[in-house]
């Protein structure tokens, strides 16, 4: 019985075109930290949308601090400043990976879409 499943999976894999296989791959998990980084990078690149992107990065960062780190968002707290610097550093690193072709802009757009839905911006149409 196990051989039948393996044979069926193999046949299915060869029968599907490559894009269909890619869409079957598990989606990357995007957490609050990832959203803060993605929004920060979007604001750094899209200057016209910088204010909104930074507001969203701040929202995601606050969620990250509270949920993952159990820290309240206090801009005077050195721990908060240190973690924000990690967001900026990762945003710059991700920008470099995109520039060097190690990551695609589509990955960033996909992450931003996940973040928009996560925080309810996609439903409200808020810009």
Question: Could you tell me the number of beta strands?
Answer: 0
Estimate the strand proportion. Answer: under 5%
Which class best fits the helix and strand makeup?
mainly alpha
**Poorly predicted tracts of residues:** 1-26
Overall mean confidence score, pLDDT: 79
Q: Layout of SSEs?
A:
Blueprint: H1 2-15, H2 18-24, H3 32-45, H4 50-68, H5 78-99, H6 105-118, H7 121-124
Write up what this structure looks like.
The chain has 127 residues and is mainly alpha-helical. The protein contains seven helices and no strands. It has helices at residues 2-15, 18-24, 32-45, 50-68, 78-99, 105-118, 121-124. It is globular, with a radius of gyration of 19 Å. It starts with a helix and ends with a helix.
Give a short summary of the structure.
With about 130 residues, the chain is mostly helical. About 75% of the residues lie in helices and about 0% in strands.
Please describe the structure with a list of short key phrases separated by commas or semicolons:
single chain; 127 residues; mainly alpha; 7 helices; 74% helix; 0% strand; globular; disordered N terminus
